[in-house]
Amino acid sequence: MTAITSKLSTGKNDLGLLFKKLWAPFSMAPMLGWLVGALVAVLLEYTIGPYVAWTLGLAKIPVLFGVLIMLETPILFPSAVLYVLIIYIVPIAFVAWITTPLANNLAGRLLDLRPWLAVLVHLGLFYAILQLWAEINDYRLLIVRLTLISIMLTLSLNVVNGYMGEFSCSHPGFMALGAYAASVFTLTLFVDDRTFGPPLLPPQLGPLLFPLGLILGGGVAALGAVIIAVPSFRTRGDYLAIISLAFMFIVKSLIENLEFVGGPRGLGSQPDWANLPTVFAWTAICIWITNNFVRSTLGKALNAVRDDEIAADAMTVNTRQTKMVAFLFAAFWAGVAGGLFAHVLRYVNPGSFGLQKLAEILAMLYFGGLNSVVGSIVGAVSFNLVSEALRPLEIMKWIIIPVIFILVMIFRPSGLIAFTEFKVLDWIRPKNRITE
Known about the structure:
The chain is mainly α. The chain folds into 2 domains: 20-134, no CATH class; 139-351, no CATH class. The chain is built from 18 helices and 2 strands. The two termini are 47 Å apart.
């Protein structure tokens, strides 16, 4: 037994040394270099992707890094892997390596000139990559937009379940309120709809005033949060979980019985105004505002309330007001996400905001990690990509995904990236500069 353990340990050390040797040439490449490499890769796919796919015997460009092809047609596994190597991995790694000195120099100059300019340059490159990658087909575009909305939902729930330390189940209800409020806003004012009649304002104004509809959806969701917050935060314990779960069912039942919004049939004909630039912009704003919120004095007060509410109260923290503000803040962003969701799918019904949606949001949150903006982003992206990648397995998908989450909860109980601050400047800092 000792000999076997020793061999396993030696093998693990050898793999670690091999990985370090392979990674060494790329260790000094900054984020700017990796983004330029990714941009080159998606440009390659955009221009020569169909020809590479045809040469390798693939009927079309792999829509999700070849995973769907591997599961649907296992015999094409080598072709899919080769496609990913040729189009993605090799170009990204080569460009990041070859541009390391130039990228470090440029990243340093941008950071010294204006930190916000450096952030905007990185963000612009990332958006260009997403836009080009998603334009290949409509399926990718839909996945990207829904994933960005999932990031907003996970982030907003993390404020309550992570930073505040409570357990809320009301996010699907807030999402429903935002989705229906934003839909009624756009359909009433800008669309000639058979349910709401002729538009009250010129349709040309619709895209310009669409942000107001999303803010309205967030406001309606925040008003709904007051109904939960007032009775829940007068007490301690598990009352919030119980009341918020009841609230979700109440909202769902209420919408099902309101005929002017379609009742159980749902509400459709929403205009296609939640395009990728719009969803990306709102997600970026949500990440920025939420990150500032949790790192502010109020965010630190939330952590104090989570760790010991009695001690926080003794240290002059208004615990009830702090929890109320955080809860309404989270509800607002869930409502905005709901408004975007309705206009991405261009149809909503009460069944979209039930227990399954709650399970998905909670899974994304706890998979990524509590008390971490980065964890929420990683959890949302991972869950959506894994869920879509395993779609060809049909019923087996809902066996594999729970097993993955069980393993994560066993080996990483706090999630993949928990209790980690999102410091943007550290991410974009050149690697040849000592981190401050």
